[in-house]
Amino acid sequence: MISIDKIGYNGKMIRDLEDEQGPNVKVIVPPKAKQDTGLFTSEQFQKSEDGAIVTCPAGHQSRSRKQTAGETREVYTFSANDCRECPLLSQCMAKPPTGRNGRSVSKKLYEAEYARVDARAKTDTYREVRQVHPAVERKFHELVNHHRARRVRYRGTAKVRLHAYITATAVNVKRLVKLLSGKLCAQAN
Ligand code: SF4
User: How much distance in Å is there from the Cα of 87 to the middle of ligand 1?
Assistant: First the structure.
């Protein structure tokens, strides 16, 4: 299991990390807050299996899709004529369309991955992991910024591993000294 800050809320990264043929680790990441506009959300628009068509709550279909910069989303646009005559218009758009385009809806390219981490974020495991996350994050900060753990001087996995073990041991000894000196001070008082 790996716990990442909100920068890890990235479908491709989640897919790569959870790949059973690859790292195969479960990702714990805070979900993105969703804005409540009171209008139909993108989840209420159904994407076909091949991703070619999206169907809106009124049953109309859009084949007009464009990929966003960063290639994490696709935007589908519905026909303005369909939207203008739609009985559900007030639940779908803040105002009727004026041009050729009706409602646009953005669908994530990695919906299954986002759904998985969103569901995980409602579990007790998520709460427990996120509670200890800041302490671990601080330790990484110390390793990287005070012990140059971002780079090693040697080549080869074995030497790199040894370097990491020695650095981690030094950090643990520092921690032990801090804890013990705190205890000793408390006893002396
Ligand atoms: S307003 Fe347009 S996109 Fe929205 S439900 Fe109606 S037809 Fe579909």
Answer: 8
> How far is Cα 55 from Cα 8, in angstroms, rounded to an integer?
30
Burial annotation 29-41 (CB, 10 A radius, 16+ → b, else e): bbeeeeeeeeebe
Torsion-angle region of 114 (φ positive above 0: left; ψ -120 to 50: alpha; else: beta)? alpha
Establish whether residue 102 lines the binding site of ligand 1, counting it when its CB lies within 6 angstroms of any ligand atom. Answer: yes
pTM of the model: 0.67
The Cα 49–Cα 51 span in angstroms is: 5
Whether the CB-CB separation of 42 and 105 falls below 8 Å is answered with: yes
Which parts of the chain have pLDDT scores under 70?
69-71, 183-189
Provide the token pair at 168: 């981690």
d(CA 176, CA 173): 5
User: What's the angle, vertex CA 34, arms to CA 113 and CA 102, rounded to 5?
Assistant: 95
Residue 73 CA to ligand 1 center (angstroms) comes to 20
